[in-house]
Amino acid sequence: MIEIENLNVRFGSAIAVESVNLLVGKGESFGLVGESGSGKSTLLRTVMGLNRNWTGTIRLNNQDIRSAGRAALVRTAQMVFQDPYASLHPRFTVGNALAEPMRINGLPNISRRTAELLELIGLSQDYASRFPHELSGGQRQRVAIARALSLSPRILLLDEPTSALDVSVQAEILNLLNRLREELGLTFLLVSHDLAVISYMCERLMVMQNARTVEVLTRGDLRAGALKQDYTRNLFRASLHGVRPGVQP
Amino acid sequence: MNRSLAVIENLGIAFSGEDGKPVHAVKGVSFSVGREKLGIVGESGSGKSLSCRALMGVLPPSASITASRLEFSGIDLLRASPRTRRQLRGGQMGMILQDPKFSLNPVMTVGRQIAEAVRLGDRRLSVSSIRRRVLEVLESVHIRGPERVYDLYPHELSGGMGQRAMIAMMVVREPELLIADEPTSALDVTVQAQVLEIMDELVRRRGMGLIFISHDLNLVSRFCDRVLVMYAGRIVETLEAGRLAEARHPYTRGLLACLPAIDGPLTPLPTLERQADWREIPA
């Protein structure tokens, strides 16, 4: 579903992604892990067509994204961002925010589809007339997910979708994403710095550092701690223990 | 943690709502902090930051504060003059916020910002001794090449460096109490560990008190000596460090259960079923 060959992304003289290859199958959930600046978000944005300066090949659902054109791309893949406070238009009602992509792309039956989307994310119909500031963070992220699904894409690109949320809300959103993936047969490419979230959500993952791939692991490898590279082992240790217990007995 | 640095008893904070009626954001909160690491955990809106801001005296004028006791090293904060409270802030009490990108002055070099804090503390210090002091404190938070970092602007620092510079600025006046509000939430896990280690070192070496506010229950219980759990403006439970597994309150247990784990089950995560009686004051 997602095929990336020898991807290089540059910003001026800085290299953000270097020689990355990636294959994600249909219906698979694939994780990208790494520290800030490792290139994982840049990779995601490039797949979505939000960066221009790149070389290599990216194919989504067997279409080369250079030749496929914008209209086809947005119906194949959509992105969900980290901060639901920043990613929804503050003066659009929820209904309007959900309908806008469909209007732009000339889809029929917009109001029926809007109602369906609200149902899909577990919000009642009266939310259609509310504004983002009237919603909690978790509800906003649900709306952002529904908006991403409004054009019925096959792929969701998820950039830290729960790191701005409380843990109890994170659980609700992760459950929602898993249910949607199963019901709609979606493919996920999920960026997170949290190995526990990746292990819970993804069948395979790629660890990135300084714009390059460190290693690709299966969920089983991660769970068994079968890590080949020192960098991944450090990341794993920091995630498990975080802090040395200091003076505690 | 023999003598208490700060004592809060029956603290309430209210804002006026849309219909003019008061909205109680914090209700009946009591705790004290000594020379220890005290963690406060809770979700957004649970009142954890507000309670600490009341202690600092940095709430907006629209907030109405009530308390039967609000003291810092023997000073009655409820009756203290604005001048006294100003002197306490930055002097004996320091505060670190979540994101160094927003809490450092973007148009001033790191060194000058810290120097300003030193100068405000003692106006008789010479320029060269202020500079020496700044370089020392940068070194104490494990910044390599303090001479070079002195002349950098905040945007030239990484997140972890920025947060260390922020800590340096707060501890340079050697406060008795440091309030850290989500100090590591914006940082990578590996950098997080370094920043926590530095704070731990400061508490042990200088005998400082630390209030560590976070939404991360596991992190706080590993790092702190004691943890308060807040929900809807109240303290629902107090836990000793490392006794997280013995948490009794359904809210605390719910918070723990809804976290995915690297080797946890792949079944849907349990979500919190919020109970109305959690909002009541525990008997």
Descriptive report:
Chain A has one domain: Rossmann fold (3-Layer(aba) Sandwich). Chain A is built from ten helices and ten strands. Chain A has helices spanning 40-47, 65-68, 70-76, 94-104, 110-120, 137-149, 167-184, 195-201, 219-224, 230-241; strands at 2-11, 14-24, 29-33, 54-60, 63-64, 77-80, 155-159, 187-191, 204-209, 212-218. In chain A, helix 4 packs across helix 5 and helix 6 (137-149) runs parallel beside helix 7. In chain A, 45% of the residues are buried. In chain B, strand 10 and strand 11 (234-240) form a beta hairpin. In chain B, 44% of the residues are buried. Chains A and B meet through helix 7, helix 8 and helix 10 of A and helix 8 and helix 9 of B.
Secondary structure elements and their pairing?
The complex is a heterodimer of chains A (249) and B (283).
Chain A: E1 2-11, E2 14-24, E3 29-33, H1 40-47, E4 54-60, E5 63-64, H2 65-68, H3 70-76, E6 77-80, H4 94-104, H5 110-120, H6 137-149, E7 155-159, H7 167-184, E8 187-191, H8 195-201, E9 204-209, E10 212-218, H9 219-224, H10 230-241
Parallel strand pairs in A: 3-8, 3-9, 6-7, 7-8
Antiparallel strand pairs in A: 1-2, 1-4, 4-5, 9-10
Chain B: E1 6-16, E2 22-33, E3 37-41, H1 48-56, E4 64-66, E5 69-72, E6 75-76, H2 82-88, E7 93-96, H3 100-103, H4 110-121, H5 127-140, H6 146-150, H7 159-171, E8 177-181, H8 189-206, E9 209-214, H9 217-223, E10 226-231, E11 234-240, H10 250-257
Parallel strand pairs in B: 3-9, 3-10, 7-8, 8-9
Antiparallel strand pairs in B: 1-2, 1-4, 1-5, 5-6, 10-11
